[in-house]
Amino acid sequence: MEIGGRRLKSRETMAVESVTQSAPPPRSRGRTSLLQNPKIPFALALLFADAVLVFLIIAFVPYTKIDWDAYMSQVSGFVGGERDYRNLKGDTGPLVYPAGFLYVYSAFRYLTGGQVYPAQILFGLLYIINLAIVLAIYVKTDVVPWWALCLLSLSKRVHSIFVLRLFNDCVAMTLLHAALLLLMHRRWNLGLILFSGAVSVKMNVLLYAPPLLLLMLKAMDITGVLLPLAGAALVQILLGLPFLVSYPVAYISRAFNLGRVFIHFWSVNFKFIPEPVFVSKGFAIFLLAAHLISLASFAHYSWCKHEGGLCNFLYSRYVFMRLRFALFFSSSFSKKVGKSSSSPLKILNKEHIVTTMFVGNFIGIVCARSLHYQFYSWYFYSLPYLLWRTHYPTLLRLILFMGVELCWNIYPSNSLSSALLLCLHLIILWGLWSAPPEYPYAENKPSSHKNK
Question: For residue 89, what are the β-bridge partners?
Answer without folding.
Answer: 94
